[in-house]
Amino acid sequence: MKKINFIILIFLMFINIFAKTGVEKQVEKIREEFTKINSEKNYKVESIYDVSGEILMEYYRKNGELKKVIRHLSIPIKDVITEYYLNDDKVFFVYSSDTMYEMDENGMPDYKKFKKIEKRYYFNKENLIRYIENGKIYDKANIPERSRYIEDDVEILKTTLELEEEGKSLN
């Protein structure tokens, strides 16, 4: 009996060690590409402000190819920074940091008191495969009703063309 339990235990450990999910493998590749883009130097950076000065789009190009776009939205009560990472003209990863400031007794933002929400979106061929919000991980099938993601998805631009159009619309 001990021998059978030992064999079952070894089998389960083997499965656990070597059976990385398809999502894990894809996320690993995405992280490698993310690291590569952020470690490269000498990007040609184009910055475009909207007329109100609330939105700044920064386009990072290497050899003419768009690799990264950073969208800054800054209004008195909120700062949102969204970073788009591209490969082959498609967004594969999005990082968003949303900082909301509390108001003081005079109705002014108190920049010392804030709430921050961080979101990470991992895409494979334009399909969301993982969503992380403040450290909580959701993979494909278990993204909770996708309600928050669907709301955010309106804001998530997925291709070079969409990102370029966003910049043109600011002028």
List the helices and strands and how they pair.
Elements: H1 2-18, H2 22-39, E1 44-49, E2 55-62, E3 65-75, E4 78-87, E5 90-103, E6 109-124, E7 127-133, E8 136-139, H3 147-153, H4 160-169
Antiparallel strand pairs: 1-2, 2-3, 3-4, 4-5, 5-6, 6-7, 7-8
Index terms:
171 residues; 8-stranded antiparallel sheet; 8 strands; 30% helix; flat
User: Roughly what is the average pLDDT, rounded to an integer?
Assistant: 80
What is the strand arrangement across the widest sheet? 1-2-3-4-5-6-7-8
Unreliable spans are: 15-19
Helix content: 25-40%
The helix count comes to 4
Rg measurement, Å:
21 Å
The chain-level structural class is: alpha+beta
Percent range for β-strand residues:
35-45%
Number of strands: 8
Order of helices and strands: HHEEEEEEEEHH
What's the end-to-end separation, in Å?
A: 75 Å
Which word captures the global form?
Answer: flat
Describe the sheet with the most strands. Answer: 8 strands, antiparallel
Q: What would a concise description of this structure say?
A:
This protein has 171 residues and is an alpha+beta fold. The chain has 4 helices and 8 strands.
